[in-house]
TrEMBL record:
Keywords: ATP-binding, Membrane, Nucleotide-binding, Transmembrane, Transmembrane helix. PANTHER family: ATP-BINDING CASSETTE SUB-FAMILY B MEMBER 10, MITOCHONDRIAL, ATP-DEPENDENT PERMEASE MDL1, MITOCHONDRIAL. The chain crosses the membrane at residues 85-105, 111-135, 184-207, 213-232, 301-322. GO terms for molecular function: ABC-type oligopeptide transporter activity; ATP binding; ATP hydrolysis activity. The lineage of its organism: Bacteria, Bacillati, Actinomycetota, Actinomycetes, Kitasatosporales. This is ABC transporter ATP-binding protein. It is found in: Cell membrane. SMART domains: AAA (SM00382). InterPro entries: AAA+_ATPase, ABC1_TM_dom, ABC1_TM_sf, ABC_transporter-like_ATP-bd, P-loop_NTPase, Type_1_exporter. The keyword Transcription regulation does not apply. It comes from the Bacteria. The keyword Metal-binding does not apply. Pfam families: ABC_tran. It is a multi-pass membrane protein.
Length: 664
């Protein structure tokens, strides 16, 4: 009975490496059983009912992209099925003529038209098969593109907060596998249709010969179908259960070849640990592969044995019919050919149904991921934002990250007026970046309201809001593209404009960066490709700044914009922000360099997600025991006294000059 049981999720072994590097099996917080797809609990028929819906997804996409190719394909497949049926009928006629009484020459003459018909339909079948290959070769990549693009288009529109949800994250990760399934699904569907038509043709001929033979055919098919579905479901369950493990292997092996950790990998000797981790985790996976292969072999053997027994019974029935005079020898010959032909169709069918069943599960995941992306998509439309931007006002804003226990922001109320440099300061984790993301409309407040020119961001047209924001984050994207494209992507909805790109680069003080590139604007700022080159951290920062400039948004959010800049460039960068504000841009500046905040129009100090102080630099410096003042003084003191303190005084050296404070 154990073969009939559905594959149950089993506890996964945890390798030593996983324990060392990830503190246990790397998986999402929720146990696998909660993720176990309802599909896994489905029986064969329930699953079979899913298939048309999934085939319809692929079929619709095929119809959309190339209806002619789809019709050609279906016509060619149907034609092949018909040629097979005609082939059997013609074979039967030829056999009847050959087994008839009379001289051999007469019998051959009688059989000749049927033999010619067999040759003709075989040739036609071969031609139709070639047409089918051509049409599917045209259709498959197009269908894959359309379905995958739907997935990507959905993924880029998901609300940022939804992406923080582990369930959503997992659904998207699972959906990603589905994009590989589309092409296979289309190919397999075609083969299944082909095999089904062949099977129906053979069954039809068998029915005409003797209805009992059709029943025998069903008996031969049933065990193979069961084996196929059972194996596919087991493989799918395994893939789901090992999803995170596979991702962990991917994450580790990716680090081995990435450029960024390359130095530490060599100097700290981290490479061996990573290679060992890869090997260790792959060995754990191999165990699972072995288990699957063994289980599949067993299932297949049982299915083949049952199917073989049914085939023997079919031949026994033929024997009985022959000996009892219920069937002529020629007809029995056709029946044998029909059973063999049906057997061949069946083998193709089983192999493909096996794949199809599995691919249907993945495609269902992809479909689920696309639906989920639509459900959590950024809303379109909404209240128009009056322009120009005059003020952003936060009232009692609290925000808790999805799944977090404590809020990252508590009842923050503040105002960001137009054309000012507004600084956000505070210790690490005090909520500065979170606040800036709420201002940018990337997250919606859990409580309280944010108003842009009086319009609540919850009701506002978010696309319009994004349109007015420029971002220059701590970890801004380093796009693997040309230098020009890296700037243009700041506002890619506008047609590419080289003069605007150059202007932004000049404003961001990045002319030198471009001038030093070996292929100028067309240099790829990524290594490993023709025209590729590597930028330094500071050069990247200038390019990122040029991108933010190119966007020309009324609100510019800059999060630690100078971390990689040299002192001269840093001073210029802060002066440039000042000048931007003087020309009407609102600048929300997040920085730990408090020398720069001295020139801000207004400073807000956050602590543990609460707004604890606000004012100008002078006002905050006048606050006895104030947090801003304490941070500022500590930073300034570093410049004043570090050279004396840092080095242990030695009799042979003396420090005669303290480095002057850089700012303030
Ligand atoms: N995506 C996230 N999911 C859950 N919690 C987060 C997330 N991002 C930040 N947090 C938490 O929210 C709090 C505020 O983080 P935030 O990044 O806003 O601080 P910050 O003031 O910008 O810090 P830093 O100066 O280090 O950049 C921290 O406790 C952090 O752990």
């Amino acid at each position: 009975m154990r073969f009939w049981r559905r594959p149950a999720p089993r506890p996964l072994p945890v390798s030593q490496t996983e324990k060392l590097l990830f503190g246990g099996a790397l998986r999402y917080d929720l146990p696998f059983t909660r993720h176990e797809r309802p599909l896994l609990r489905m029986g064969f028929w329930a699953m079979a009912r899913q298939f048309p819906a999934m085939a319809a997804v692929v079929g619709r996409a095929a119809w959309q992209v190339d209806p002619r190719a789809l019709l050609t394909l279906l016509g060619a497949e149907l034609g092949q099925g018909l040629t097979r049926a005609f082939g059997l009928v013609a074979t039967n006629s030829a056999l009847v003529a050959l087994f008839a009484a009379g001289p051999t020459a007469d019998r051959l003459r009688q059989a000749l038209p049927a033999i010619l018909a067999v040759s003709a339909v075989t040739g036609a079948g071969a031609l139709l098969s070639a047409v089918s290959v051509g049409a599917s070769g045209r259709l498959e990549p197009q269908v894959e593109r359309v379905c995958t693009a739907r997935f990507y288009a959905g993924a880029v529109r998901i609300e940022l907060a939804a992406l923080e949800d582990k369930d959503i994250h997992r659904t998207l990760a699972a959906g990603r596998f589905g994009t590989d399934s589309i092409r296979v699904m289309l190919g397999s569907s075609i083969t299944v249709v082909n095999a089904l038509i062949g099977l129906v043709a053979s069954a039809g001929v068998l029915f005409l010969l003797h209805p009992l033979l059709v029943a025998m055919l069903v008996l031969i098919a049933a065990p193979k179908a069961w084996g196929a579905v059972f194996t596919a479901r087991r493989r799918y369950a395994s893939r789901q259960a090992w999803l995170e493990h596979r991702r962990a292997i991917g994450i580790i092996s990716n680090e081995i070849t990435r450029e960024q950790p390359a130095a530490e990998i060599r100097v700290h000797g981290a490479g061996q640990l990573l290679v060992d981790a890869y090997t260790d985790m792959s060995i754990t996976m191999e165990g699972e592969q072995r288990r699957l292969a063994r289980a599949q072999a067993t299932t297949q053997t049982v299915a083949s044995a049952l199917s073989g027994a049914a085939a023997l019974a079919a031949y026994a029935v033929l024997w009985l019919l022959l000996t009892s005079g219920g069937m002529a020898l020629a007809v029995a010959g056709t029946a044998v050919i029909a059973v063999r032909s049906a057997g061949a169709s069946l083998t193709g069918l089983v192999t493909q149904v096996n794949r199809l069943f599995e691919e249907t599960l993945y495609l269902k995941d992809l479909d689920g991921a696309c639906e989920l992306a639509e459900r959590h998509a950024l809303p379109t439309g909404g209240v128009a934002l009056p322009r120009p931007l005059e003020e952003i006002r936060l009232e009692n804003v609290s925000f808790t990250y999805p799944g977090a226990e404590t809020p990252a922001l508590h009842e923050v109320s503040l105002t960001i007026p137009q054309g000012k440099v507004i600084a956000l300061v505070g210790r690490n984790g005090s909520g500065k970046s979170t606040l800036s993301k709420l201002v940018a409309g990337l997250y919606l407040p859990s409580d309280g309201t944010i108003r842009w020119n009086g319009v609540d961001v919850r009701a506002a047209d978010r696309q319009e809001l994004f349109d007015q924001v420029g971002l220059l984050g701590q970890d801004f994207p380093r796009w693997p593209m040309t230098a020009a494209a890296n700037v243009h992507i700041g506002r890619s909805a506008r047609p590419f404009d080289q003069s605007r790109v150059e202007k932004a680069v000049t404003e961001a003080d990045a002319d030198e960066v471009i001038a030093a590139l070996p292929h100028g604007w067309q240099s790829l700022v990524m290594k490993g490709f023709e025209r590729g080159t590597q930028l330094s951290g500071g050069q990247w920062q200038r390019l990122g700044s040029a991108r933010a400039r190119y966007r020309q948004a009324p609100l510019l959010i800059v999060d630690e914009p100078t971390a990689a800049l040299d002192p001269d460039a840093e001073i210029e960068a802060f002066e440039a922000l000042r000048s931007l504000a003087d020309h009407g841009t609102t600048v929300l500046l997040i920085t730990h360099r408090l020398a720069a905040t001295a020139n801000a129009d207004h400073i807000y100090t956050l602590d543990h997600g609460r707004l604890i102080e606000q004012g100008t630099h002078s006002e905050l410096m006048a606050l006895e025991g104030g947090s801003y003042r304490r941070m500022y003084e500590r930073q300034a003191a570093q410049f004043a006294i570090t050279p004396h303190r840092a080095a242990v005084p030695r009799p042979d050296r003396h420090h005669d000059a303290a480095a002057p404070p850089a700012y303030g």
